[in-house]
Design goal:
This is DUF262 domain-containing protein. By secondary structure, this protein is α/β, with parallel strands linked by helices. Helices cover 53% and strands 8% of the residues. It folds into three domains: 228 residues, no CATH class; 213 residues, no CATH class; 153 residues, no CATH class.
């Protein structure tokens, strides 16, 4: 490679095109981090020139200061007869594009103030010589030709007057407005705007420097791009993956414009750039897609932090066709979008809500694989989702570890890739049921019931896990025939209410037929049991929390809509033996709690079944 320190006039002052590959990321620079610092440098350079031109003693120096704007990496494209020389922009597209926006704003400002010399010189930095532009390629007039999503907005930059500002307009147009405003204010500060415009042009042409790195025949453009961008930059892992794939496609003789339009443009929709929370981190959805997809392909855990390195290693070992990889990625992207739009009434949609509540994503690659395989039926997907949810819920109720989940679910995933699609869900269920290690086994009904009847369940599960449990019981009570289902997302918005309050002393006297110490001990044992818990709105919870049962029962009767309350608190469940507790809703005692706990434990075994 050849590296030189050059002035801006070297970059834009000759007939040369700087072509950004169609597959590079769109324009992302903004005011705070990029436009404002650039304008600050340009203004400072122009004011230095202005001072030197003013004739102030000792203002002129033979070695004026150069303001460096960073580095660009270029690769000469094969020459074509009758065409303007083109340089492939390996790195620096954001910088070069922004400089063209600034120059366009400067050109407009010079025109508005009648600075004819400045206007003419600036036009030379914006357009290649008219006579050299190929008739069939009019875009060759531009010194920079940006990536595909930015081209329409880029062409609009060169209008003398922009249209009225609109919400959500392209970032390039916003950049032009920013520079227009700054230039207008700066030129208004002087009584000699023409002379200031001339000083600005001199500063732009001669006082702004860049490091231009031109690659030579033996240089690997992709390796250099990765070295410059893989660490400490705002490029996402997906940007690096994308660049690698399209450069490979070029080497394999593919039409990269067609591949980009067909397979990658859908992945540039706004939703894929949104950041979503996974565990303790926020990640762009496109990076998560790539992480899940690579886990499916490799059978290994792929943290987003290692995504690009793992992808590059896999691609090197696989020797895959770039077009096939892009097609597969696009297919999984469509499957992931479809999967994430599933309602809570769908078993997979419900499981995704459970995983979101629990802040875990370990089974998601399995769910994506099941969605992406067209030969797997909705029934098999439902069996798989139900098995995974039951496995997770039973284990956390029993206080079992989650530490081996990554390896377990990856092994399940790799097995799924080998089995017949028509029985994929059943195979997954049976594989989970066959686990015997302490860190992997699926608790059976008896152990699950024991876990549910723990006397400190509220404190052991707390927050999200408790809402998953109570919400699942509500959904089971409603059943498939109910007009309105109940999803984990709904449970997340509700509060957990103790029916027999934690501060019970004022309104819930101890029974007198047993010794006081024993009665208190028994009372304390049931406070945090499953049978003493329900879900209510936050407002209802705060209004009835420690009140007497008579008032609490009326409030629940008037406002509670969940069957978890209406069908097992305000009236006896069908599972309660006749006459066991006469006048069921007349009070709320330790006997009520124990009986309701047993009923709900039996219900839970039905809600989260496990094969024998």
């Amino acid at each position: 490679m050849k590296a030189d320190t050059v002035q801006l006039v070297h970059i834009f002052g000759t007939d040369r095109r700087h072509v950004v590959p169609v597959f590079q990321r769109p324009y992302v620079w903004d005011e705070e981090r990029n436009w404002a610092p650039l304008w600050s440098d340009v203004r400072a350079a122009a004011e230095e020139v202005e001072t030197e031109m003013s004739g102030v003693p000792d203002a002129y120096t033979a070695t004026p200061r150069t303001h460096f704007l960073g580095a660009i990496v270029l690769e000469r494209m094969p020459p074509a007869p009758g065409r303007i020389l083109a340089m492939n922009v390996i790195d620096g597209q954001q910088r070069l594009t922004t400089l063209q926006v600034l120059l366009a704003a400067c050109w407009v400002a010079a025109r508005e103030h009648g600075a004819e010399n400045a206007e003419g010189l600036l036009k030379l930095l914006l357009n290649n010589t008219e006579q050299l532009i190929h008739k069939q390629h009019p875009y060759e007039r531009y010194k920079v030709w940006p990536s595909l999503p930015d081209r329409d907005a880029f062409k609009a930059l060169f209008a003398a007057k922009l249209p009225a500002e609109r919400p959500g307009e392209h970032r390039l147009i916003a950049a032009r407005r920013y520079f227009d405003d700054e230039l207008r204010a700066w030129l208004a500060e002087t009584t000699e705007p023409v002379e200031r415009a001339d000083a600005l042009v001199i500063a732009l042409r001669e006082r702004l420097g860049l490091v231009e790195i031109q690659l030579e025949g033996h240089d690997d453009a992709q390796v250099i791009f990765e070295t410059l961008n893989d660490r400490g930059t705002r490029l996402r892992a997906s940007d690096l993956v994308k660049n690698t794939l399209f450069r490979l496609a070029e080497q394999q003789g593919e039409d990269v414009t067609d591949l980009h339009q067909k397979y990658w443009v859908p992945l540039e929709a706004a939703r894929w750039g949104e950041e979503v929370t996974t565990g303790r981190f926020r990640r762009a959805r496109i990076d998560l897609l790539l992480s899940y997809w690579l886990s499916i392909r490799t059978g290994l855990e792929v943290p987003v932090e290692q995504l690009f390195a793992d992808f590059r290693r896999w691609l090197g070992e696989k020797k895959a066709s770039a077009a096939e990889v892009l097609a597969d990625l696009a297919h999984h992207g469509h499957a992931m979008q479809r999967m994430e739009s599933l309602p809570g009434s769908d078993p997979t949609g419900r499981l995704l809500q459970v995983l979101d509540l629990l802040s875990t994503t370990t089974p998601v690659p399995i769910l994506l694989h099941l969605q992406a395989k067209d030969g797997i039926s909705a029934k098999q997907r439902a069996i798989a989702a139900g098995a995974i949810e039951s496995f997770i819920v039973r284990r956390f109720v029993c206080g079992l570890t989650t530490k081996d989940y990554n390896r377990l679910f990856l092994s399940v995933l790799q097995n799924l890739r080998k089995v017949d699609d028509t029985v994929a869900g059943e195979q997954l269920r049976d594989q989970l049921a066959g686990q015997t290690a302490d860190s992997r086994y699926w608790p059976e009904d008896g152990e699950f019931a024991t876990g549910l009847l723990q006397r400190n369940l509220y404190r052991l599960l707390r927050g999200p896990r408790l809402r998953v449990l109570l919400g699942g019981l509500e959904a089971q009570l409603r059943g498939e025939k109910s007009e309105m289902g109940f999803s984990p997302a709904q449970a997340a918005k509700l509060s957990v209410e103790h029916l027999l309050p934690q501060q019970w002393e004022q309104h819930y006297p101890l029974p007198t037929e047993v010794p006081a110490e024993k009665a208190r001990e028994r009372r304390d044992e049931v406070i945090h049991m499953l049978g003493n818990l329900t879900l209510t709105t936050t407002k209802l919870n705060s209004s009835i929390s420690n009140g007497p049962w008579s008032a609490k029962r009326v409030a629940l009767t008037n406002h509670a809509v969940l069957l978890l309350t209406a069908a097992s608190v305000l009236q006896a469940s069908p599972g309660v033996p006749d006459g066991k507790i006469p006048n069921w809703s007349g009070g709320w005692t330790e006997d009520h709690v124990w009986m309701r706990s047993l009923v709900l434990a039996n219900l839970a075994n039905t809600a989260w079944p496990r094969p024998s």
